[in-house]
């Protein structure tokens, strides 16, 4: 069975779970939706708590200089959300107001700020852990709102959404073993939530002709695995979690070193909180009180 994305979002709105704002991919969330999401967030945190990670929370902004160092702009310019802020005098302000009144473009009065919207929850972590890591490496639990410029009527493709991630930093074998353990945990989580989910090799949406080669290389090396589940379609399930091995990309970029001076390797497992909540309503219906007891138990409803 396939449910059109527009029909699904209309049902979500009819049941007062999401509120339309007039901009594709930007929604208000109801109290029940938020409650479900926060319970899910707590469940994910509890699963990772056995590893005793350091917990960090950042605002959904990253300094422009760190953003440029990350390489994101090179690979995904189409998704970037740059922040612009007014920095003029009274005359410039009057020019902006006149442009608004005349329905002209007023953005020239707002030059770039020194921050960019965070594209993934893990991005502020790497500059925060620069330097030499302990012998056992580092492990960080992080959650944040994230932004990607891909407006869509598909409710699973929000422009602003939350990701809960666990980030592993250390030697290559440490990171890869950790990722394999989290793949098992992620499948167990989906089973506890009674979602029809599976894992598959994937690639990021790299930009341009050169990006196609990067995507092929990423897939061939098995650097990205996604957990997918039905949201708007059974035939084309949506990624609700991803497990990524960055090799030494962030270690080199941010000067994260092992004890022997070599660049640290990093990996992350990220859960799309809104997407998993949407998958729950898609799978179990819009009346949360009638969800399977196993799901209610997992989320402590």
Notes on the structure:
- It contains eleven helices and 14 strands.
- With 301 residues, it is α+β, with helices and mostly antiparallel strands.
- It has two domains: 5-81 and 119-299, 2-Layer Sandwich (BirA Bifunctional Protein, domain 2); 84-117, no CATH class.
- The strands form four sheets. Strands 3-8-9-14-12-11-10 form a seven-stranded mixed β-sheet. A three-stranded antiparallel β-sheet has the order 4-6-5.
- Strand 1 and strand 2 (27-29) form a beta hairpin.
- The longest helix has 21 residues, at 172-192.
Instruction: For the largest sheet, list the strands in their spatial order.
Output: 3-8-9-14-12-11-10
Q: What gyration radius follows from the Cα positions, in whole Å?
A: 21 Å
Specify the structural class. alpha+beta
Count of extended strands: 14
Assign a percent range to the helix content. 25-40%
Biggest β-sheet strands, sense, barrel: 7 strands, mixed
Broad shape = globular
CATH superfamily annotation of the largest domain = Bira Bifunctional Protein, Domain 2
The oligomeric state is single chain
> How many structural domains in the coordinates?
2
- CATH class call of the largest domain: Alpha Beta
What distance separates the N and C termini? Answer: 28 Å
Stated plainly, the CATH topology of the largest domain is called: BirA Bifunctional Protein, domain 2
Question: What would you say the CATH architecture of the largest domain is?
Answer: 2-Layer Sandwich
Low-confidence blocks of residues: none
